[in-house]
Specification:
Shape of chain D: elongated
Distance between the termini of chain A: 48 Å
CATH architecture of chain A: Up-down Bundle
CATH superfamily of chain A: NADH:ubiquinone/plastoquinone oxidoreductase, chain 3
Largest interface: C-D, 88 and 74 residues
CATH topology of chain A: Methane Monooxygenase Hydroxylase, Chain G, domain 1
Structural class of chain D: mainly alpha
Strand content of chain D: under 5%
Number of helices of chain D: 3
Helix content of chain A: 55-70%
Distance between the termini of chain D: 58 Å
Strand content of chain A: under 5%
Largest sheet of chain A: none
Shape of chain A: flat
Number of strands of chain D: 0
Chains: A mainly alpha (118), B mainly alpha (408), C mainly alpha (173), D mainly alpha (104)
CATH topology of chain D: Helix Hairpins
Largest sheet of chain D: none
Number of domains of chain A: 1
Number of strands of chain A: 0
Oligomer: heterotetramer
CATH class of chain D: Mainly Alpha
Radius of gyration of chain A: 25 Å
Order of helices and strands of chain A: HHHH
Order of helices and strands of chain D: HHH
């Protein structure tokens, strides 16, 4: 178990180090001749107006919210799915109830108009 | 064990006997082997991407009635290498007011998040990175790191369009993760394990035959997850300049490019592992290298499908894309999950033929019902026309015959 | 010192360091990004404790969902971005001093406990099998009630959050 | 092998840092970040106790509680951030010192 994690850890370190090293090498090779015009922000070819941190609408938050709820519910369902073959029909219906409550959450969000991209 | 049948394990054994012969301890040898294995796999994946870029451009060219790259080498196969050399010597431009750390970290996270998926995929019956009991959840979790890279690119660039695009992209990605995770539960419960190799081993009948609708939903969402057309909303040039990576240049931009191309093949790889039986095929148990060939063949087929869809279907609008996910895919996958778990419990596993036919019947039933409901809903709520067409340019003396307040 | 201890110390240092940065960063966005690093450190700690499933779930839920939600919320409450002044209350050092004293006190009290320096035994196979957890979750004699209640809790949270967050004026077309 | 005390000290320190954030942050989102850190400290403790004392019960009780804490954390974040967004919409601030309607 810990050996698996060791391999995974090494793999992750290499996977994230490789692009970093590539970017560093390219940084050494590439010219560095910045000037204020070149470094200015690109927006459709005209000068940027206002600051970049614009106000967002609440819709993004609502989608994130529903995603979070579904994510946590499926996290509870994954151990259940692993045990599925050893479970009785009763336990399956418990999970169906669980998923139905999840579906009710989706239904509420839908009826409330929270799923509309306005 | 011969070299031709199972080269990876042959080399591993040879190396470990060599190292132990030099007096290295067993655990140290293991560590060295892990480092070599992981390094070879990641480097191989990155160089494979170079080939993938050529392949995608070539196939894309053919779809659009062009030649595609054709100058450097036979069939232009050295084109991506020339591009790579060029991009290595391009200047990095950091926009004024950029948030340096997130800005520079974003391309690394984007590539690393995709590369990390290769750690758990079983390539042959004896060659797999790790098979501990979390593979499927790991795949989803690593996808979340890619989301984080995109959001960092948007936040760090100090550019409204990059920020808007990054947020849209993340909203899309997390939305499509919901049906994806829900349908991934189905192969997990068929095999009774979260480990990828266990899932492959348990597929006496491929999962796509047991759960065709789940496979279809997973395929759709994985296209959406890597932001390919028709879901390539984050690079809608006309609305968002070029997406969250507008301020990137040089290899930092190249890394997003690499991540994009690598991700589409990785999606094909994951799909064929989970639903198409991975390395399974005639003779793959005894001759492991055959399994690798099967896996690559299956993935190439899926990859070609992804490309086909990319080059033929036009882009969605963002509201259509969100509606498609939340009002169509998610309800279907919830219903599918509930029906599948009840039915599969009722039918004994050894009645393979009956099991497959019942699953097919139920899946087709759900699909037809969803289609009926969808067309009825579309009839009662006709599609919104977002913008009214502008009046055509005309000389001022010509009268306009436009109905006041006419609906279009 | 074994390799595991070195990994633990690095992970703990990263976790604590980025946690301190997360509660003291001036810009809220930076605080959220530091939070991500701290949560990643906690995931490594879980992996060291051989709770593989929860190490991955930590990344999935906390980094994939909760921190993205926090970033969305920061972007929605915009004034916090441009706020360049002090982000902490006056007298933060009183809180810091008090908490350091409490921390030392708790650690000192705990160190009297005989199992303070307990070493881990080998994990039995049943304890690493996800199926055990799954069976316990739907076992009427186990944790069936919390399992079902948690879905109701999440439903309630979703209903409440959508009701609060969605603007009532925007709702009417 | 790592003694239990290391994990407990780490969890206690993380808890204190989180509590510090909750107490001192002016910004409500900052306070919420502190709460997340505190919940994580609790999780570290639960997992560590599961790992070190599973011999008493070879089941996964400790991990069930970790799963439930994930659920609670999700609910808490969802509601908390929704309240913050709602407060920001009506009062145009997320500063705790200015949200003092009940002060009279």
């Amino acid at each position: 178990m810990l050996n698996d994690w060791l391999y995974l850890g090494i793999f992750l370190i290499i996977a994230f180090a490789l692009p970093a090293v590539a970017i560093l090498i390219a940084g050494v090779l590439s010219p560095k001749k910045g000037n204020p015009i070149k470094n200015s922000i690109y927006e459709c070819g005209i000068e940027p107006i206002g600051e970049s941190r614009i106000q967002f609408k609440v819709q993004y938050y609502v989608y994130g919210l529903i995603f979070l709820i579904f994510d946590v519910e499926t996290v509870l369902l994954f151990p259940w799915a692993v045990a599925y073959k050893q479970l009785s029909l009763f336990a399956v219906f418990e999970a169906v109830l669980f998923i139905l409550i999840l579906a009710a959450a989706l239904l509420y969000a839908w009826r409330k108009g929270a799923l509309e991209w306005l | 064990m011969s070299f031709l049948a199972d080269p990876v394990n042959f080399i591993t054994q040879w190396l470990s006997t060599l190292l132990i012969g030099w007096g290295a301890s067993a655990s140290f040898t293991q560590l060295i082997l892990y480092i070599i294995g992981a390094g070879a796999l990641t480097l191989g994946a990155l160089f494979f991407t170079v080939f993938l870029i050529w392949l995608e451009r070539k196939i894309g060219g053919r779809f659009q009635d062009r030649l595609g790259p054709n100058r450097l080498g036979p069939w232009g196969i050295f084109q991506p290498i020339a591009d790579m050399l060029k991009i290595f010597t391009k200047e990095y431009i950091t926009p004024t007011g950029a948030d340096k750390v997130p800005f520079n970290l974003a391309p690394i996270l984007a590539v690393g998040g995709v590369l990390a998926m290769w750690a758990v995929i079983p390539y042959a019956s004896t060659v797999f990175g790790v098979n501990f009991n979390i593979g499927v959840v790991y795949l989803i979790a690593v996808g979340a790191i890619g989301d984080l890279g995109i959001i960092m690119a948007g936040l760090g660039s100090n550019n409204k369009y990059a920020l808007l695009s990054g947020f849209r992209a993340v909203a899309n990605l997390i939305s499509y993760e919901v049906p994806m995770v829900l349908v991934l539960l189905i192969p997990v419960l068929f095999s009774g394990s979260l480990g990828m190799n266990d899932i492959v081993k348990s597929q006496q009948t491929w999962n796509i035959f047991l759960a065709p609708l789940a496979a279809l939903i997973f395929f759709t969402t994985s296209i959406a997850e890597n932001g390919r057309a028709p879901f390539d909303l984050l690079e809608a040039d006309s609305e968002l300049v070029a997406g969250f990576n507008v301020e990137y240049s040089g290899l930092k931009f190249g890394m997003f490019y690499v991540a994009d191309f690598l991700h589409s093949f990785t999606a094909a790889l994951v799909f064929s592992t989970v639903f198409l039986g991975g390395w399974r095929g005639p003779g793959a148990e005894t001759i492991p290298i055959l399994g690798f060939v099967y896996l690559i063949l299956k993935s190439s087929l899926v990859y070609f499908l992804i490309l086909h869809i990319r080059f033929t279907i036009p882009r969605f609008r963002i509201d259509q894309m969100m509606d498609f996910n939340w009002k169509f895919l998610t309800p279907i996958s919830l219903v599918l999950l509930m029906v599948t778990i009840v039915i599969d419990k009722l039918i004994p596993t050894d009645l393979t033929f009956i099991r497959i036919s019942v699953h097919w019947a139920v899946n087709i039933l759900i699909w037809v019902a969803a289609d009926r409901i969808l067309s009825a809903a579309l009839k009662s709520h006709p599609a919104k026309v977002v913008a009214r067409p502008r009046p055509l340019a005309r000389p001022p003396h010509v009268a306009v015959d436009e109905k006041p307040g006419g609906e279009i | 010192m074994s390799g595991m201890q070195v990994i633990f110390l690095i992970a703990a240092a990263v976790t604590l360091g980025s946690a301190i940065a997360a509660v003291s960063a001036r810009k809220m966005l930076h605080a959220a990004l530091w939070l991500v690093l701290a949560l990643l450190g906690v995931a490594v700690i879980f992996a060291l404790l051989e709770a593989s499933f929860f190490a991955v779930v930590q990344v999935l839920v906390y980094i994939g969902a909760i921190s993205i939600l926090v970033i969305f919320a920061v972007m929605l409450s915009r004034t916090s971005l441009t706020d360049e002044g002090s982000q902490t209350n006056r007298g933060w050092w009183v809180a810091a001093l008090g908490l350091v004293i409490v921390l030392i006190g708790v650690v000192a009290a705990l160190s009297l406990w005989p199992k303070w320096t307990a070493m881990p035994g080998a994990l039995p196979a049943a304890a690493t099998d996800m199926a055990t957890l799954g069976k316990q979750l739907v076992d009427p004699n186990g944790y069936l009630l919390p399992f079902e209640l948690s879905s109701i809790l999440l439903l309630a949270a979703l209903v409440g959050a959508i009701y609060t967050a969605v603007d009532k004026k925007e709702e009417k077309p | 092998m790592i003694p239990l005390s290391w994990y407990l000290i780490l969890a206690a320190a993380l808890m204190s840092i989180g509590l510090f954030g909750v107490i001192t942050r002016k910004n409500l989102v900052g306070a919420l970040i502190g709460i997340e850190l505190m919940l994580n400290a609790v999780n570290i403790n639960l997992v560590a106790f599961w790992r070190y004392f599973h011999n008493a019960r070879p089941e996964m009780d400790g991990l069930v509680f970790v799963a439930l804490i994930f659920v609670v954390a999700a609910g808490e974040t969802a509601i908390g951030l929704a309240l913050i967004i709602s407060a920001y919409r009506s009062r145009k601030t997320v500063d705790v010192n200015e949200l003092n309607l009940l002060k009279g």
